[in-house]
Amino acid sequence: MSDAIEKIKTELVLKTLNNKEELRDWMYTFLDIKFPMGVVYPGSTHGPVDAMWRIYELMKTRESRDVPQVSMLASRDSYKTLSAAAIEVLCMLHFEISVAHGAAIKSQSEKAIQYVTSFFRKLKTLSLFLSYL
Fold this sequence. Notes:
Elements: H1 3-12, H2 20-31, H3 48-60, H4 80-95, H5 106-124, H6 127-132
Helix pairs in contact: 2-3, 3-4, 4-5
C-alpha cells in the first residue's frame, strides 16, 4: 500500500460515519467487503447494510440506552455472521465498546471469531493500529 493511501486510510478509519452509504464504503475500504445495498431477497424488508447502519446509528446517537440489544434475522447462508462480525469490529473501534456475539451453533461461533480476527489483521496493517492493537 502506498504511503499516501495508508496516510489517508489512517486518517479516516476512526472518523464517525453519517449514513449507510458511508458505512458501506468503510466496510469496503477497510475490510475489503462490498456489502449489497437494499433488499437482497424479494420477500425481505431490509438488507445487510440497513441492519448494520441501524446498529451503528443506535450506538452513535446513544439510543442504545433504550435499545440495549439488537437481533438480525435472515435466512441461512445470508451473511448474518459476516455482517455481525463486521459491525462489531466497527463499533468496537468507533465507540470503544465491548461486544458479545451469540451464535446458534459452535461452527457459527468459530466462524465469527475467524471473521473478527481477520478484520483486525487487515486493520493492523495501518500504521495507526501498529501501536493501538
